[in-house]
Amino acid sequence: MASTIKHKLLSCLVMLAALLKFSTANAQVPFYKDASQSIDLRVKDLLSKLTLEEKISLLGYRSQAVPRLGIPAYNWWNEALHGVARAGEATIFPQAIGMAATFNDDLLKQVSTAISTEARAKYNLAIAQDRHLQYMGLTFWTPNINIFRDPRWGRGQETYGEDPFLTGRMGSAFVKGLQGDDPKYLKASATAKHFAVHSGPEATRDKFDAKVDEKDLRETYLYAFHELVKNHVESVMSAYNRVNGVPNSINKVLLTDILRKEWGFNGHVVTDCGALDDVYLTHKTLPTAVEVAAAAIKAGVDLDCSSILQNDGIKAIKQGLLTEKDVDQALSAILRTEFKLGFYDDQTANPYHGYGADSVHNDQHLALARKVAQQSMVLLKNNNNVLPFKKSNYSSIMVVGPNAASLDAMIANYHGTSSKVINFVEGITGAVDKATRVEYDLGCDYKDTTHFGGTWAAGNADATIAVIGLSPVLEGEAGDAFLSESGGDKKTLSLPASEIAFMKELRKSVKNKPLVAVITAGSDIDVSAIEPYADAIIFAWYPGEQGGNALADIIFGEVSPSGHLPLTFYKDMSDLPDYSDYNMKNRTYRYYTGPVQYPFGFGLSYTTFNYTLGSKLKTTYKKTDTVAVTVNVKNTGKFNGDEVVQAYIKYPNIDRMPVKELKSFKRISLEQDKEGVVTLKIPVQDLQKWDLATHKWKLYPGSYKLVLGSSSTDEKLTADFKISN
Length: 725
What we know:
CATH topology of the largest domain: TIM Barrel
Number of domains: 3
Distance between the termini: 93 Å
Helix content: 25-40%
Number of strands: 26
Strand content: 15-25%
Number of helices: 20
CATH class of the largest domain: Alpha Beta
CATH superfamily of the largest domain: Glycoside hydrolase, family 3, N-terminal domain
CATH architecture of the largest domain: Alpha-Beta Barrel
Strand order of the largest sheet: 9-14-13-12-10-11
């Protein structure tokens, strides 16, 4: 009996010890680290545990560690414009403007999915070594969805072009791939930038005041931002400049009234880097950093890419300009993002924790980079169908030009690094057999108009491919494009005079043999200066690490070119308003009626396509309807190829209506002689325009026209319809 009692007592003691151990273990896990709780409750709990000083220390992009709560330091500044940037080896996709030229939002989502996979892998590898480095995090300050309203803007290459609809579609696709589709965790955080009305001039971006009326603001400059908010972008970055006198980073109308209250944005707002310093140093709209810190948080800023909030937040509270409640509201927004990324959870519970080194820069991502580069390149000229080259007809090829082997011209700005970049020389060389002679020469530089190389050798070759154009040191962001003569922007549309002179000399040397010009740039270029000397012209943008292979695929007919211009190529800068004028009149295909080099949406193919309507439109539509049309597309040429069916709307003849406007598009791949069906849908409410009298969106009744074609000036099919009240 005694033995039995002793045994039971011992069992009870063991159970009690286990319960105490379990209870103690649970007591040591703070509520904010309980992944089963809602994010809002977890944020509230964490806020209650932080001191005011600790809260302030978390409001800058160099977020400070709070060791007593197990919060590590974190750097919010990370880049992924066209691949994980500035973080070591990563796949380098074509520059954003080139990806826009694909008119393929499904493909862009695949790209950003690959980017976020590499980002997660690099983050996992860094954290495993207790490295908390800038550019190795998960909060990415991309995409750039500003409207490329003027070809002088050096950073236009970072955007998806001049059209709000295309920008909204492509930007939303990028966000979806970057942030992932897990119901609980963000794969990475995307940021829509730069909010708002920001597209040059670069040299004065820190003090410039963009004057814009409400109609252009709503219809052009805010449209894509609203689209990305509707598609749950996690972050928005405020721009450097002022809008109608108010610096963006203290603009309550934009950051709170429109972004949060009207659109329902529930992510966090970060300033562009140093933008708060600009408020008092260059804009001079407030006298001190302390007042700026208070004004920024009250306007809706949550995170500062400088040090003003961290340095002056406490001072603002002590001076009565700010309350701890204001700080809590800002900090709550950025903490929610951290919780969504899984920063406070067991990493093994995160669906992305398994990504490692084999997820970075792998064969699948390289193949994707090649595919995107193929679809991005735009064929501008193909005289007498000189392209594609049949390899057996060319025993010797000359590849020449300042950008033929240029690394910068491949990788653009905001780029990663790669051990596998294939430049244009390497791409052409690798595409032909070992019995084919390929030569290379730099040919010319960006300055010298009298000394050239490779012209004699070109005359001895069966065909010449000349790679000319710009590079990211001639156009880009202020400070980065250090060879730009105007702070990163372009003064003219001209190619370097040395390249024009070089093309003339090449033409003389090659005589009647094929001469193909390949142009690299991130914007509108005066192609007419070299057009007479080239039999074919390919606009390659800055095509990423697989650009050389992609060009060879097009040159030798492995694929038919299918890129389309996401911006208008004007004839001359004199056709445009003053660069600092943000009024949309006479800008972009939507409002410009003059002659152009190449229209928005333009791009040639090796094959031809025929359209027939598969369905008729209704006579009249109302606001709740959708204009839906099916188009039968047939490949009527001699090559397999892709067509991009573009749907434009022409509006009633009312003051300040666009000339026409892209409202749907769809890419379709068709083999020779094959036919396919494209369905395009346009919600009627998307045809609303801003009414300046009522300060609201309004659907104007009247006669409309649907135009279907392969560019903004191509009218293969049209259909009239009316909209009623």
